[in-house]
Amino acid sequence: MDGDIPEAFYEPLGPGRAAGEGAGGERAGGERFASTRATAGPWSPSLQHAGPVAGLMGRAFERTEPMPGTRIARVTMEILSPVPVAELEITTRVVRPGRRIALLEGEMAHEGRTVVRATAWRIRRAPAEVPGTVHAPAPPPLPDARKAFTTTGLHTHGYLSAMEWRPVEGSFFQPGPGTTWARSRVPLVAGEPDTPLVRALVVADSASGVGSQLDVSKWLIVNTDLTVALHRDPVGEWLCMAASLSVSPEGGALCEATLADGDGEFGRVLQTMIVDELPAS
């Protein structure tokens, strides 16, 4: 492992203060994590990229009263404030229990203040004999060599370096749309392998960077949320993202992306973006 990159995005710290029974008697999970510098996003070494944050929420949902024969099909994350590179606590609960469908809810907090809220739908897996139907074209081949991308003025020694990128079309923070293959160079949590859901979520929040249409040296563009919907679980380490950004004057921006692996497309990403003038330096 590259000595400049931590061994994982997060180090587990054990049960959180909120672990145990919820206020209404429902089960609630609580777990604490130390964020490593690998979580830092491109804007600041002290603020996290939302990819690892989404992965950590997805991991918590998968461990919340799991049921055999089911899978997490959709995760929506509301980003209430920037997430610091610091100790975090995650709590989850089942809002709507069921054997075919269940709605899960979770929060991420720093020093008692909620910074992220998320929901997830857990559904029963479809029967194996259901005919498969996918309308998206096959993804482009994985490039043989890693290509450099331009990151002028950005913090690159966190999440951007903890991931391996192989752009096919376009480049980070250059005029999009763009397509890239990517995989994580470190696990989400130290000492454990990533699940397929975690791998998808860690990549998904990069959609607005891959599909960027705006000059980030002139405009502030930040997503307020992230929705990832998967019709099947991804296979393998390398995932392909094709992303585009739509922007409207006096409106905002919307980023959309498809997710694929070597077997084809398996899900979609949606981000609501705020666009504003950069703060005066």
Automatic annotation (TrEMBL):
Residues 40-122 form the Acyl-CoA thioesterase-like N-terminal HotDog domain. Residues 17-27 have a biased composition (Gly residues). SUPFAM superfamilies: Thioesterase/thiol ester dehydrase-isomerase (SSF54637). Residues 1-50 are annotated as: Disordered. InterPro entries: ACOT8-like_C, Acyl-CoA_hotdog, HotDog_dom_sf, TesB_ACOT8-like_N. Residues 149-275 form the Acyl-CoA thioesterase-like C-terminal domain. This is Thioesterase family protein. It comes from Actinomadura napierensis.
